[in-house]
Amino acid sequence: MTERRVRRRLTMWLVAALLGAFAVVAPADAATTCTLTFKANWRGTVGGQHRWQIDAKLTNTGTTPSTTWAAVIDFPYSAGAVIYRYWSTTKISASVWHPVAWNGALYPNQSAYPGFEIDVPVSNTSPPLPTSSQCSITY
């Protein structure tokens, strides 16, 4: 190959790189890879309501450390469930939860443990486990 051709190709590569023609491919782990599980513990009756503690476990099932996570958790509000308090999470809306400052980054197979105390009417003896839930992790 002539020196002129080499320079021309090198120039084309440099121009393409500067213009962003080369895409950076994200690793396969950049997909949403997490699990969200729940465990209910009855805490007693308070003010005519059953109080339940719902322990959540959100796990990074990928192979890359995360930078943050989000969870959409639908508690059975129509059955009278009321969230009395929560910890290790930040409430964004009625169903959306984000991490607190210290538990957003999760290494592979590491978990965050948000918790909720939920009151339900005494007539409702079922634990107020979520009716639906999903999680997402950002890498």
From TrEMBL:
Which N-terminal stretch is annotated as signal sequence? 1-30
Q: Where is the CBM2 domain?
A: 34-128
- Name the SUPFAM superfamilies for this protein: Carbohydrate-binding domain
Q: Which domain of life is it from?
A: Bacteria
Q: Which InterPro entries match?
A: CBD2, CBM2/CBM3_carb-bd_dom_sf, CBM2_carb-bd_dom_sf
Q: Which UniProt keywords apply?
A: Signal
**Pfam families in the record, alphabetically?**
CBM_2
Q: Recorded GO terms, molecular function?
A: hydrolase activity, hydrolyzing O-glycosyl compounds; polysaccharide binding
GO-annotated biological processes:
carbohydrate metabolic process
Kindly provide the name given to this protein in its UniProt entry.
CBM2 domain-containing protein
